Amino acid sequence: MTGTALLALMALSTVGGAHVLSRARWTWTMPRAGIALWQALGLAWGVTTIGTLLGYALLPYEQGITGGIPAAFADGAARLDAWHLAALLAGLGLTAVLLVMLVYAVVRIGRARRRHRALLALVASDSAVPGTLVVDHPGAAAYCVPGMRSSKVVVSAGTLELLDSAELAAVLAHERAHARERHDLVLLPFASLRQIFPQIGLVGRCLDSVELLIEMAADDRARQHRQPRELATALLRFAAARPVAAPSGALSAVGDQPAVLTRVRRLMEPTEPRRSVRFAALAGATVIAVTPFLLYHLPI
């Protein structure tokens, strides 16, 4: 019972942790550490919730989860009454739902990207900047279409007229950061969770928080090569011009206006992150991600 109780306690703690982290502001000073924490919390929630159901279901075998599952298969779950059998089916069902929805999200986004790449091949033209395509559209747009083999950065003709050369270079550096760090893969599990639980506000806040952090992480990468003011002014110009929404499966430099203003303030008034806090955050993320798997091995 100890392992099951600890898994249940940790499952509840991950929900509380997500609530706290969704309102945290210190992560803005170290977005990559914040992203790691979010990934650890998401993984831990899934593993501990499933583990709680399986642990309760397999209590009659008194061998924990890793020992109880083979034992249950060996005797056809003969020791399980209706309640324990229902918990076993719920645990297996939740596992299937999470995996199926994640695969569905991967397939759906991959299909959308393939369609958009085919469209770009017809309507886009190469620009003077290698790896960048230009679409003849008057609206402001700049986004990245990630890919396993190659990623494309797309800008509109309206963007070329809107930004000067320095601002454009900063935006392109931001989009290349998305492609280099594969931020689309970071978002996938959280987007999948929102599809499963669309009515739960906390899930939406989690996705919003992760989206903001990956934009900040891309901002940090861009300002390693460009002046922060260049990206800040580009973001403000985009926001004022009401940019065209990025297609499904793409990552855009500009989101909603409150997020843009937050990023601009951060670029213009940077706060140096404390190494001790970053180390604590990364260590905490490691502990959160690993502990649930260790609890699966508790014998009782």
From TrEMBL:
<dbReference type="InterPro" id="IPR052173">
    <property type="entry name" value="Beta-lactam_resp_regulator"/>
</dbReference>
<keyword id="KW-0645">Protease</keyword>
<keyword id="KW-0862">Zinc</keyword>
<feature type="domain" description="Peptidase M48">
    <location>
        <begin position="119"/>
        <end position="199"/>
    </location>
</feature>
<dbReference type="GO" id="GO:0006508">
    <property type="term" value="P:proteolysis"/>
</dbReference>
<keyword id="KW-0482">Metalloprotease</keyword>
<dbReference type="GO" id="GO:0004222">
    <property type="term" value="F:metalloendopeptidase activity"/>
</dbReference>
<keyword id="KW-1133">Transmembrane helix</keyword>
<keyword id="KW-0378">Hydrolase</keyword>
<comment type="similarity">
    <text>Belongs to the peptidase M48 family.</text>
</comment>
<protein>
    <submittedName>
        <fullName>Peptidase family M48</fullName>
    </submittedName>
</protein>
<keyword id="KW-0479">Metal-binding</keyword>
<feature type="transmembrane region" description="Helical">
    <location>
        <begin position="276"/>
        <end position="298"/>
    </location>
</feature>
<dbReference type="InterPro" id="IPR001915">
    <property type="entry name" value="Peptidase_M48"/>
</dbReference>
<dbReference type="GO" id="GO:0046872">
    <property type="term" value="F:metal ion binding"/>
</dbReference>
<keyword id="KW-0812">Transmembrane</keyword>
<keyword id="KW-0472">Membrane</keyword>
<feature type="transmembrane region" description="Helical">
    <location>
        <begin position="82"/>
        <end position="107"/>
    </location>
</feature>
<dbReference type="Pfam" id="PF01435">
    <property type="entry name" value="Peptidase_M48"/>
</dbReference>
